[in-house]
Structures are given as C-alpha cells and as structure tokens.
Task: structure prediction
Amino acid sequence: MKQKLESITQPDDAFPTYDEAIWTTVGYIPKGKVATYGYIAALAGFPRTARAVGRALSKLPDNTTIPWFRVINAKGVISFPIGSEKYGCQKQKLLNENIVLYNGKINLKRYHWEI
DNA sequence: GCGTTGACGGCGG
DNA sequence: CCCGCCGCCAACG
Result:
C-alpha cells in the first residue's frame, strides 16, 4: 500500500478495484473522526456512489483493521437498524473514540473528517 | 441486457 | 425536525 494522501484527491486508476479504493480511503479517517458515505465516495474518486460504499464495506471480514465504523450517513446516523447487533457494535466502537451520539445522532459539525 | 437491491443523498412538504 | 419520493450506481440473478 504505497498510496499517499494525494492519491485520494487524484485517484485516476490508482487502485485496481472500486472496493480497494473505498477501503483504502476509509483507512485514512483519523481516530476520533467520522466521514459520510458520500464523502468517502468522492475522496476515493467515485462521486455519487455513496450506496456502493456501504456495499463495499459489507464485504470486509469481521477481523478487519479498516475503521469501517467511522463511516456514517449524511444525517449523522448509524446506518443499521436501531437495536440490531451491528448497530450496537458500531456505536460502541465510536464511543471508544469519544465520539458520542445525541439522540442517536452524531454531531457532524464537530466530528466529521475534513481534508 | 434487464430488473432488483441496498451500511445513500438531497430536496420538497 | 420528520417523512417520503426520487435520483444514483455497482453488484447479482
């Protein structure tokens, strides 16, 4: 993985596959910060593919080191059914980084990652 | 090729 | 602020 930050903004076939591009980009989200699906898609070089980002993340193995839990939707909400195991898992990982939810929502003004 | 399916986004009501 | 509708787009059957 020799890709550097600059390649995030200028992807041009910098990655072999769409999934690789997404996973790598997600890996750049700093601890304590979050990013929306659409934002990740744009940085990876595939604007308007927010939905596909979720699909790509769903392919990750359970033991992955990629911080998939730092990706939330544009409303600042975890994109899993409230109360589901996945939901609780993601919420816990975020809390571990001091990212708090207020009424189920994360304050994007405060926690969203900006390049 | 075509219709369906999502860990989505934005806008209007 | 909370829906709901519609647009988007990569997989999958």
Observations:
- The longest strand of chain A covers residues 35-36.
- Residues 85-95 of chain A form the longest helix (11 residues).
- Residues 33 and 113 of chain A are 5 Å apart (CA to CA).
